[in-house]
Amino acid sequence: MKRTGTKDNRRDARIAVAQGMWVAWMAGESRKAPRKVSRVRDLSAGGAFISTNAPLAVGSAVQLLFALPEGEMRIHAIVRYADKEKGIGVEFTRMGTADRARLQELLRRLKR
User: Fold this and answer.
1) Is residue 90 within 8 Å of residue 50, measured between CB atoms?
2) How many beta carbons lie within 10 A of that of residue 53, not counting itself?
3) CATH superfamily, domain at 7-111
4) Global pTM value
5) Which of 74, 77, 58 is nearest to 66 (CA)?
6) How many Å apart are CA 62 and CA 77, to the nearest integer?
7) Residue 78 — φ and ψ, nearest 5°?
8) What digits encode the pLDDT tens for the residues 12-58?
């Protein structure tokens, strides 16, 4: 796996997430792509680190689905960092206004 990107490239500080946060995701834009469920290790307004051993290349498009107390969030992202033993770092590229509001509320809750 290609490893690129560093913490220095981040615009937003990431918040470590408790063991209970999971995300359903799939690579690419096709609705027929296999879906996976993985643990979220950390999260920010601009991205997340997802634990997985799925072989995704840097630059791959990913669709994310979070089911949260604040509501469901659907976010499009791109893989910016990949380590086949640890997971992928993704940058959020597109989300709706309501999803952005849910994400901000979630981040406020996690910071407490």
Assistant:
1) yes
2) 13
3) predicted glycosyltransferase like domains (2.40.10.220)
4) 0.84
5) 74
6) 5
7) -130, 140
8) 778 988 777 999 999 987 777 789 999 999 999 999 999 999 879 99
R_g of the chain, CA atoms, integer Å: 13
Q: Where are the beta strands (DSSP E) in the chain?
A: 15-16, 22-27, 36-43, 47-51, 61-68, 71-83, 87-95
Burial class for 92, CB neighbours closer than 10 Å (0-12, 13-18, 19+): buried
Q: Which two tokens stand for residue 40?
A: 């979220």
The tokens for 91 are 């940058």
Q: Where are the domains of the chain?
A: 7-111
